[in-house]
Amino acid sequence: MNTHFLQVQGLKKSYPGPGKSPETVIFEDANFNIEKGEFICVIGHSGCGKSTILNILAGLDEASDGVVIMNEKEVSGPSLDRGVVFQNYSLLPWRTALQNVTFAVQARWPEWSKERILEHSHRYLDLVGLKGAHDRKPSQLSGGMRQRVSIARAFATQPQLLLMDEPFGALDALTRGVIQEELIKIWTESKQTVFMITHDVDEAILLSDRILLMSNGPKARIAESVKVSIPRPRKRTDIIHHDNYYTIRNHLVDFLVNRSKLVSEDESAKQPYPKEITFPE
Amino acid sequence: MFNSIKLKSALLSVVLLVLLLGVWEGIYQAPQDSKPLTEYELLMGGATQEARVPPPSEIIKLGYEELSDPFYDAGPNDKGIGIQLGYSIYRVTVGFLLAALIAIPVGFLVGMSPLMYGALNPFIQVMRPISPLAWMPLALFIIKDSEISAIFVIFICSIWPMLLNTAFGVANVRKDWVNVARTHELSHIKTALLVILPAAAPTILTGMRISIGIAWLVIVAAEMLVGGTGIGYYVWNEWNNLNLASVIFSIFMIGVVGMFLDMTLAYAARWVEYQE
Ligand SMILES: Nc1ncnc2c1ncn2[C@@H]1O[C@H](COP(=O)(O)OP(=O)(O)OP(=O)(O)O)[C@@H](O)[C@H]1O
Ligand SMILES: [Mg+2]
């Protein structure tokens, strides 16, 4: 019956209001599924609750209502099956790049020998293009390099679901482009399921199979699920020439600019969200 | 080129030192020649002159003699300054290490658990402002051993800065780092050892540095009280003998040893420091 890899049903997060005032509902009625191997991006205005959803999926935060089911098991608490790339990298600053990765690999496979852990960690750091910087502390790395270590750490543990919170938010456009391509490369090889938050519409189109659009808070919803019907492999330089690129892009931008406000206000439109949207290839 | 400032400061330090000692020496010499003896001084047979603060030259001469044989031992009231300092350092070290042994684990507990924090905080807040010397009579009464009582006083005065700093450091470890531990399913023990301890280590070391500073301040006073051995006792004893050159030299040595104790911990702190 449950054929989806990950199911999110009726998820809600609210905080108690100040004093006796009613609770503040950040988002509610969030329903969506993710299939194995899918790359999902989430877009929405600041403060609508994207990070909160991601933290609930990670098991770091608790939902006020609703369930998250992965592999037919309810998610309760963090697990090595769900790797997280945090918005601010979250590397341990007293450890070198390599030690930050071995830390994770050792936690994942405690039975492995030292050599095997080292070999595995070196491989993933090389994969994200950090050859020659393995023994540097995070403070000696640029923002882009730190984010690569963070990505290497997450991929090295081979989690079933990879959660990324605006992983490229703090990077300049050039670095961003390079790391995006590396991410595509690793993702293609590993067939990992990815759930990623971004503010960047073009990034979402380049990377994802499907884009979830969140309406504005309070009482935000996952309003739409837009299929990115552009064939892979995709290249940053090529996809802009694909017929669907601007159709999808305009749709996303229109949502963010015009419709994201309306959905939460329109109580009568209590349809089963999200609306599935596909543009034929 | 890069240490030209350093060089200049060092030079200036030397100049200031020479100036200071020169003025001091000068003041000492000056009145002797000019002023005739007052009636009072005549009555005292010039005894007041002996009680004057001795000049640097005398102190340096004494210091040289003391330091050329610091560990001689000629009975309970005549030991080298090295032996006396050794006793004090020994007491401070033992008291300080015992305090660390208790303060760091308890601080960890208090920092990690809001419940323990709430429960222990009233005790800490009341105990902390008590002058460590106020414990001395009670310690002497219960322990009945002046040596252990002195160590106890050191223990009690070094425990608070370490405990509070450990608790503060542990409680303020960045949430992200704890989340990294959680997403990697680390056990509580492993989280404490691999994430919280290294993250809080600089704050803990700062607490240890404050503690050893206070301990060194307190040991002098404590030894003046309990007597027997130690640099504090020595200073007091020399004062009773009116041997002021010796008193001043001891004061200087207390400063030097205190500086070395602090430098040792500052050096240790460099090992655990990290840059975010
Ligand atoms: N402890 C709290 N109490 C009350 N409200 C909170 C609390 N924590 C977060 N919020 C609210 O929850 C909302 C969602 O926060 P969240 O960090 O998930 O937003 P976001 O969509 O990730 O935003 P951004 O894109 O800026 O990162 C915000 O409006 C925030 O004000
Ligand atoms: Mg966020």
Structure description:
Chain A: GO terms for molecular function: ATP binding. Chain A: Belongs to the ABC transporter superfamily. Chain A: InterPro entries: AAA+_ATPase, ABC_transporter-like_ATP-bd, ABC_transporter-like_CS, ABC_transporter_ATP-bind, NO3_transporter_ATP-bd-like, P-loop_NTPase. Chain A: It is a peripheral membrane protein. The complex is a heterodimer of chains A (281) and B (276). Chain A is of the alpha/beta class and 281 residues long. In chain A, 36% of the residues lie in helices and 22% in strands. Chain A has helices at 50-58, 97-108, 114-127, 143-156, 173-190, 201-207, 236-239, 243-265, and strands at 6-15, 24-34, 39-43, 65-70, 73-74, 82-85, 161-165, 193-197, 210-214, 222-227, 275-277. Chain A has a seven-stranded mixed sheet, sandwiched between helices. In chain A, helix 2 (97-108) crosses helix 3 (114-127), helix 3 (114-127) packs across helix 4 and helix 4 packs parallel to helix 5 (173-190). The longest helix of chain A has 23 residues, at 243-265. The two termini of chain A are 30 Å apart. The model of chain A has no long low-confidence stretch (mean pLDDT 89). Chain B is mostly helical. Chain B has one domain (80-275): Orthogonal Bundle (MetI-like fold), CATH 1.10.3720. Chain B has helices spanning 4-34, 39-43, 47-50, 56-68, 81-112, 114-127, 136-143, 146-171, 175-183, 188-226, 231-240, 244-272. In chain B, helix 5 runs antiparallel to helix 6 (114-127) and helix 5 (81-112) packs antiparallel against helix 10 (188-226). Chain B is globular, with a radius of gyration of 25 Å. The mean pLDDT of chain B is 89. Chains A and B meet through strand 6 and helix 2 of A and helix 9 and helix 10 of B.
